[in-house]
Design a protein that fits this description.
Length: about 400
Amino acid sequence: METVKVLQVISNLENGGAQEVVRTLVKNLAAKNCLPVVCTFKDGPIRRGIEELGIDVEVIDLPRRSVVAFPLFVIDMVRICLALAELIRKYDIDIVQTHLSGSINFLTLILPYITNLHAVLWTFHSVNFLPSESKVSRFHWLLKPKRYVHRLMYRVSSQSVCRLIAVSNQVRESMIERIGPVEEKITVICNGVDVARYQHPVDRDHVRQELGFDPEARLLITVGTLKREKGHRYLLEAGTEIVCQHPDTYFMFVGDGKLQSELRAQADAYGLSGRVRFLGTRQDVDQLLAVSDIFVLPSLWEGMSMALLEAMAAAKPIVATAVSGTRQVVIHDETGLLVPAGDASGLTQAVVTLLSEPARARAMGEAARQRVKEHFSMEKQAAEYLALYGQVMEDGDRMAAEVNKGYA
């Protein structure tokens, strides 16, 4: 296959799972027969990590006004479309792949008609991909009609998009449920992680000392944006009983978000203020995982959590909720323990079990690392994407040949 040029379009480059998927993916694509370029509409800290790989990042810093101001909304969409078309011509792009792009997904379908673009791919990172309340914070009355319109547009537009990519089997099921009978369009490509990054030796006592923890403390870590769907409140609710049974236990919450003040207040109310450390966004998650004992993912839903894959690559035993994506990654009682979503008592029991049985916990951690190596490595992810790119390029060439034959 000739070198294929792919424009990865993502809504923003803030710290997040989908953003880390893009960073990891382009790193591996660049090492193979592919030339990736990243385009975003909002700059962020992930940009630096991508550019350090020698990969171009383009920021389209244009206004995106609400559909309430419809004439201005249309003008904004036209300007964004023209800006994307300019990038496609600049880099001679073959394929556009979108991530977290919402309404921009529909806009990309115009691009093959005004450029030499071969194909458009949409990537779905969550089972809940329709507009959320945060997208209509000023106009709550718009949520239901906006979701309805998006569902309708996805159903119609899915006939024109080349491929729909789901990051887990459960995301695929959600797409079929919400969009319609689009099974033939969907390709499942699971997220992948850089396993080697989480195997470097770390001075455990030194890192713990810098964090202010005793070398013998039991450390639980959770990594994720502080938002409701991540379920932090249930881990805090479980925390009181966990500490009661294991008084040397502490919690590290890694990530920022709008719920930080609320979660701090909840920790205080449960008497955990000295036990829970809100560490914010960190660039040394690999070291934090290395010095932790158990990784907890109390989410209410997921697509396929990159934080979970990273924790497994670091050989951490897992306590997680049995939600979409996670069920595909964690094997209950082998690589971790799964509990129902929103079940604080279930989290308590699972954590206490692993704290009480350290040998079992270590065995689960090693099994977790092996599972990620075999099924969720970044090399496997990149290979599957390259195969898909090759397939859509061949399909595009075949269709073009048939069209030309018809005119002959």
